[in-house]
Amino acid sequence: MTAKLAIGDKAPSFKLPTDNDGTLSLKELAGKKVVLYFYPKDDTSGCTQEAIDFNGLKGQFTKAGTEIIGVSPDSGKSHDKFKAKHNLGFTLVSDETKEMLEAYGVWVEKSMYGKKYMGVERTTLLIDGKGKIAQVWNKVKVPGHAKEVLDAAKAL
Q: pLDDT tens, position by position, for the chain (156 residues)?
């Protein structure tokens, strides 16, 4: 298991499938600020609210020169349905192999009702235009989070 990333670390590179049968790499985002938010599963209550919150602020993120990218281990087809259902206007990356999730330190052991399992720890990273991590939010609580990330992006 990879250690958590910290402010000032270089963001690990990736090239993964996205919704709409696309692909996305960190290299393609060079020069832009990027919000990478990691979430456990499409169409669950917390993940849906987080996506809707980020989507509602998309125009302001764009004005701040910041791309929003959602990442989960769900398939591209699952992402397509999730985006269509909630009219999401940003890219969702699919990491079914969990390699990126591990590289970013968000694929962790979790526990529910005493049962241990591996899953995504809800985490958000703000990456600057040079590919360095500018801010990290671990164990994210959804209410108010997207606005907090927007404020950090504006200040960067």
A: 557 899 999 999 999 999 999 999 999 999 999 999 999 999 999 999 999 999 999 999 999 999 999 999 999 999 999 999 999 999 999 999 999 999 999 999 998 899 999 999 999 999 999 999 999 999 999 999 999 999 999 999
Spatial CA neighbour of 22 closest among 63, 65, 83, 66: 83
Sequence letter at residue 97? T
Backbone angles phi and psi of 109, in degrees to 5: -75, 130
Domains of the chain as residue ranges with CATH = 15-155 (3.40.30.10)
Active-site residue (options: 5, 26, 47, 125): 47
Residues 6+ apart with CB under 8 A from 20: 76, 80
- Residue 108 sits at φ, ψ, to 5 deg, of -130, 165
Is 47 one of the catalytic residues? yes
